[in-house]
Amino acid sequence: MNRRVAVVALVVVAVAAVYWLLIRDKTVTPTVFSPRPAALLETGEDEVVVSADGALVRWFPVPTDPPLPNLPPAEPPKGGRLKGPMLEQVRVLAAAPGALRPYLERSFYGETGVDVVLTSGIELRFGDDTQADRKWKAAAAVLSDPTVTTLDYVDLHAPSRPAIGGSGHTLPSLP
Asked: Could you tell me what percent of the chain has a pLDDT over 70?
């Protein structure tokens, strides 16, 4: 009986050694995850890049072309990750389509929720961060409408029915 156990153990060790030394794939495939910058947070004298998931990325260089939209100045959170209204703003900014990113100036949390201000002064009122993709599509549709030439805000609370108002700002010019 002991002899059988010893033979089985020896076979298992031999099979494991053959697999480990001869069969298994010995190549290493590196995977690098780079944070996707969404906004800048002013923390006193410094500007810190905020990634799309709300993490502060202090080592990431501040991009200048196109510049990132600014969040309201604040103390950096303990733990290095934004929460609450600031995180909602980051989620909305991160969902912005690439074509509109150069026109984003700043974000703030207003009376109705997340607001994004374009470089031309037009305010996009998102409410909360739910359906951010649909709300951005609705904003792009309004901003690209040739019949709309001036406005102050676009209310995107209901993305299927965006509302516009005012006439104080012209639409951003194309690059």
From this structure: 97
Q: The pTM is what?
A: 0.77
More confident residue, 107 or 78: 107
Tell me how many degrees the CA angle 130-142-166 measures, rounded to the nearest 5. 100
Helices 84-94 and 132-143 sit at what angle, rounded to 10 degrees? Answer: 60
**What is the rounded CA–CA span in Å between residue 45 and residue 43?**
6
Residues 6+ away with beta carbon under 8 Å from 40: 47, 48, 49, 50, 62, 67, 68, 69, 70, 71
**Coil/strand/helix, residue 167:** strand
How buried is residue 53: exposed, middle or buried, by Cβ count under 10 Å (0-12/13-18/19+)? middle
**Tokens read off for 102:** 């150069």
